[in-house]
Structure formats: C-alpha cells, structure tokens
Amino acid sequence: MNPQDLIRKKRDGARFNSEEISAFVRGVCDETWADYQISALIMAMFINGLNQTEQNSLTKAMLNSGKILDFSRIKLPKADKHSTGGVGDKTSLLIAPLAAACGLAVPMISGRGLGHTGGTLDKLESIPKFNVNLTEKDFHRVLKKCGLALSGQTTDIVPADKKIYALRDATATVDSIPLIVASIMSKKLAEGLDALVLDVKTGTGAFMESELDARELAKALCKTGRDFGLKTEAVISDMNQPLGKYVGNAHEIYECVKILRGEIEPEMQPTLDLSIELTARMLVLANITDDLDEARFQVEDALDSGSALEKFKQNIKLQNGNYKVCDNPNLLLDKDLIEVKIKSPEAGFISEIDTKAIGEAVCGIGGGRVKVSDKIDFAVGYACGKKLGNAVKQSEILGILYCRNEAQAAKVLAKLQMAYKITDEPNDRKFELIKDVVSVSS
Amino acid sequence: MNPQDLIRKKRDGARFNSEEISAFVRGVCDETWADYQISALIMAMFINGLNQTEQNSLTKAMLNSGKILDFSRIKLPKADKHSTGGVGDKTSLLIAPLAAACGLAVPMISGRGLGHTGGTLDKLESIPKFNVNLTEKDFHRVLKKCGLALSGQTTDIVPADKKIYALRDATATVDSIPLIVASIMSKKLAEGLDALVLDVKTGTGAFMESELDARELAKALCKTGRDFGLKTEAVISDMNQPLGKYVGNAHEIYECVKILRGEIEPEMQPTLDLSIELTARMLVLANITDDLDEARFQVEDALDSGSALEKFKQNIKLQNGNYKVCDNPNLLLDKDLIEVKIKSPEAGFISEIDTKAIGEAVCGIGGGRVKVSDKIDFAVGYACGKKLGNAVKQSEILGILYCRNEAQAAKVLAKLQMAYKITDEPNDRKFELIKDVVSVSS
Q1: A35 to chain B: which residues are within 8 Å by CB?
Q2: ipTM
C-alpha cells in the first residue's frame, strides 16, 4: 500500500478499511510518508469525509502509535475533562482540584495555546517554577499523591497526532469533525480513563462557531468514546463571550485561585458554574454517585470546605511550582503592567461580543502564539467588565487591558472596542451558559 | 493572502479570482509556500475543481512564472504537437522533421518518461551524443538552421510547473483536467507558437483511459488555447495497443528512421498514419494551406522525397548527435541483447491488449523510470508482433522482448503474456486509430 494508492482512494471518495488507516498512521510515524503526502491525504479526508468506522480506525491507529498509560495501580476511578478551546476558558484548573477533592484521580494531559485560544500548559507555567513536563513516572507519583497530575503530552503518547496536527494547522484542515475526534479521543484514550466529560464550545470564540456543528462534534466524540468502552458525555457550552472575568495566562490562574479561595467576584461566577457542572458530571459518570444533584453538592462542598484549594496547593508543590500563590494570589500578577481602559463609544446594550477578536487581541500583545515557536508573555491579559445583555453608558468601561506599554495597547485598542456590538434596545436573546448535554446510548 | 486562507477557500468549494491564483503560483516559485501547503491546495483543486476562468488564470500565472520564448525573428510559422503520452508513441520524432520539411518551424520542448509512458527526450538520448539540453541561444540557432529544435525544458521556462508536477506525481493528483491543462498549455504557450496540435490518447495505455474523459480533456485544452489566442486542435487517438511496432527508446528511434527512409514494415504503418494526420493538421492550422487533403499530400511528399529524413539528419548533426544513424539505423540497436519470444497460450483472436502492462514491462527491464531519479537502459525494448483483431495460433509469437538476460525476462514474461486477451470468436469492434478531432470555435 503505497502513499499514492491510499491518497487516490480517499481522493475518489472511497472508504478505508482499518488496515489502510493503520498503514497511513504507520507511515506518518516512521516517516515513510512525506509531509506533502500526509497533507494531501488529510485534505482528501477533510473534503470527502470519514465515516464512524473510519473515524474509529483512525482514533485507534493514532492511539496505538504510542504508549497507553496504565494507572491500574491507582484504585480511585480515573476521569478527565477536555474542552475544545475558547477564550478565558480556564475550567481545567478548577475542575482538576475539585474532582480530586471529591475522590477522583485526574490524569490531565493538556496542550498549549495557538491562535485566539489559550492552553492549560501555558496558564500553568505562569505559576513560577511550575513543571508541566513530567516524566511518566513523576506523573504517576503526583497523581497518586494528590489525585491530580497536570502535564504536557510526552513524545511517546500519540506521536502521530503531533505531526498530523502541525500539518493540519498549516493547511487549513483543523476544523474537520473526524480529524478533531481522532486527535482528541486518541489522546484521552491514552490516559487510561474510566470516564471523560467533554466541553464542546460554540459561539464567536469557538472553533465550531455554529451550535449545529458543535452538536455534531459532541455526538461524534461521544460515539467514539462509546465504541472504545469509555464512558463519555459532552456538554455544549457558550463561547459567545469570554468565560468569566479574565483572559490571559497569569490572570486566569489568578481567577481560579480566587474562586478556590471563595473570593468570587460576580464576573467570575460563570467560570465557577461551568466548572461545578462539568465536575459533577465527571463524578456521576465515574460512579462516585448516581445522582447529579448530589454530585453538584459534593463539588460545592469541596469548594466551600477549602479541600479543593488544598488539592491544588498540594499539586503545585508536587510539580515544583510556587504554591504560595494559593495563599497570596497577587503573587501571580506582574506589577509592571499598565492598565488601559476600553470604553463604550455609545450608550446601549451589549448584544454581541466578537470573542475571537478578544482572544486575538490578547494574543497580539504577547499573551498567546500565532506560530508554535512564539514565546508567551504570561502577565498580559484582559479583564472583562461588561458582558452580553449588560446596559452600558457612553464612555463606560467595557474592559481593561493589562499590557506592557501604550504602543502595545495602541495595536489592539480598536480591535477590542469593535469587538462589542452595542444596540439601542435590549436583546431578548437568552445568554445560556450551558446549551445542551449530549450522550449516546451504549 | 496567506496560504491557509487560500487553501480554506478552495477546500470549501469557492472560486478563485486571478489575483488569488497568482499569489499561489508566486508562493510556489518564491518558496513562501511549503510543499505540504502546495499539495493540500492541489488536492482541494483536484476534488473541488477549477472552472474555465480559474483554469485560464492558473495557466497564465504558470506561464508568467518564467520566460516566454520569442521566435519573432524566425519568419516561418511556428507550430508544435503535444501528446498526452502513451506506449510506443514516437510520432514527435517523425512530425518534427516532416513539418519542418513542409515549411514550418517546430520549437519542440519535450519531457522525460515516467511510469509506463516514454518521453521524447529519453528516446532522443538513445542517439549517441545527441544533446537535449540546449541553451536558449542554441535552441534558437538550431531552429533557425533546420526548422526543428528538440530540447528539454530549461529551468527558466514555467518553473512553477516543475515543482507542482513533482508534487502531483507524489500525491495522486496528476489526472485532473484543469491541472493537466495548465501544465501542458503553460509550457506550450511559452514556446511562442502560432499553432498547436494536441494528440489526446485514450485506451488501456493512456492516462485518460475512457474516451469520455479524453474528449473532455481535449475540449478543455482547446478552450484554453482559444482563450490565449493560440490556434489549437486536438486529435483523439487510440492507445488500446502500443502505437506501431516498437516500444523502448532506441527501438522507437529505429522505427522512425526506418519510416523516414521509406523502409516501412507493416507493423509500423499506424505510426506513420498518425504522424501524417497530425502534421497535416499543423500545416492547415498554421496556414501553410487551407486544405487538409492538400496538406496530407505535402507531408507524404516530404517523406517520399527524402526531405524529412534530410531535416532529421541535419537536426541530429546540429544537436551534436551521431547523424550516421540516418544512413544506418542498425547503429541504434545494441547487439548484446537477447531476444525472448512471447507466445500465445492458445489459438483465437486478440480482443484486448493491456497496453499499460506492456509499457510497465519495458519499464521493468530498465527501459523506463519508476522514480524520476532512475537511470534508463536505452537499448531494451519490445517488438509488437500481433495486434488487436489479429488471429493467432497456439504458440504463435505475440511479440519479442529485447533484454539483457534471462533473469530480466523472467521478471516480466508473465505480465507480457497476460497483457493479451485471446477470445475464440473474432471481435467485431472497430480498431480505429483516430477516434475524433476536437476544436472549439473562437
């Protein structure tokens, strides 16, 4: 099976069997396929599609391209959450300690930010000295000791994905459901989980803007979870505005620590609400309890009692980070930043927020990456003042940009201001945080 | 316009404007597009198509990526023939001298063989010391002196095609009509021609096996010719069996010289018939005469009078080749070969010939290239004995393989024998050499 024959087959819209998909993934890993051949096939897959069987074969072949973690010696149920990515989406950093405090083991392998969306690893690295590059042995040790371990993907876990994802990013083939499913699920299946909750974002800051696409992706993810015997549920959540108060790496950790400390500002409430919901669903899926309300109660209790904060502190310590940030979250904030206020040009009601533009603005002042090789300034960020549906007066503050200097601010000021659509009349649209929950029967 | 945006556009089936297509071709030439981005876009073009306007824009951008030859100082009408490739298809080597003898200037830029089809340059190189790498200045000089010049594509003519074609070959995106049209027509338009006759092959040895596809390609080529103001006509000719007697580089030159010398064996007749037809159409298109029968007569006269042979001899001399092959064609044949007879396993009628298999067999004993970097053994080849419709007795000779040794023969013997389908009853199918002539009104 040479590359040309396989490419031709998908080019002409035929279906692959599992052996053909394995041959492709093997070729990616052993480098007998050239990059231009991989990207040609990926484009053919993007346009002509993969059915459920092919999608599962691709997931399996990618999963088997590397190591599958084995936490069977840890007796707690293993569960994780994965989000499709958004702006200000920092729930992982709350969910992991909350879930651990409720009796789950959370072996969370995360990624880095690219484009307008942030990545958990970058956020964690804004905690001084926090080590996100754990060896498998250390990952196991940290997980066992505190119930959560937060690390980047080692080169031996799903190596095929790393290569394929980089090519997809460079060839406009990211937003294909079967390719997204194989990429996410192969990595999550490699974590050796009992349960997985997916947070599929929809809206102006999500990869899948339309709710219809998000629903389709959620279903496809759940189906693949089911077919691999992993209990999977997907929550479709709103990304028509940044989640919670802050956007920016250190600021997002700050928000999470504030919440874990019970110092919850009103703008932070959605971050907490979504985190509670996702964690509660992990508890039910992993059979900690069979009642969702009871699960929510347990999660809230883990927050109120301070046990989740304690878990996070323990974890930071085990991963060599400065755990004092849990006692004094201000340590996370850089005093050398200037604050630039974004003001409303007119009075009215906020009817739309271009969330992607806000993510890009933070990225544009160094808070994210345009290219994989870009360095990040963890300190810069944005605080959302007004949210969808809020009334604003002329010149009232919409948000605050935390940046290095005026010149930097000037680059993104107009973009931020234009991200807000102000209308004369209040919009009667409902701004629901959680739009739906998707699961498939086994 | 970054690569991802352009790729995304064609991926989603949208139409490109000419500026977008130029940006792509510029990116190919200045290497700001990576190979994997080029191949992703090419695959999207293959699957989602290019309309006539896009096809013309691509042709134009590719043409303008390099030098356009200018033969305005040569006062003769300039014409060329181009074939889409076949097995034993050696008409270029007859047409160029025949057309030159009839008063045309033929600036023929040819390619090399790949896979089952041969290439004019390889055939020419089987003439000892023949130089196919002419500088532009030498090309001009040779053309002016003898009316025909035969050379390879220099790096400054349509450089975009070289890069794109290599990627298409490696990514199963060769057989797309708009991509074929842009590749062929950009190179032919760079020759500064007044008239172009295309020989579009159809059948078991052609890239476009089906006659419907061949007809569609012929029409697309003619339309692009018309849109660029180049008089273009396409002949759809049969490639359900090798053309003429021989397959293999030196053997094909031998067949041409024999024909030019008037020593025409019956199996060689189709080679001559097709060459006369294509040359006569070049004469009419280039306004040497407006009557096709008169043109045919002139071509036959150029053959009978020996003036075409004289042109070829002159050309070989000017391109530093051993022109004595025109006086003694046996100089072309290597005496160190062995002859292996392919015999019919049964009595009956030849109803089908897998022409591609015959091309691949000759390629398999060194007569062609599987990879671009392969070296060719010019001497090896195959002589067709029986043709479509012929009656054969059991063990009668179907053809003769000329190869280096028995081991080499053993590799391809079964393939050659199986290439012939023998039936009990004669087939009442007509085996027409010329199936149709396509032109589009201007």
Answers
A1: 34-36
A2: 0.87
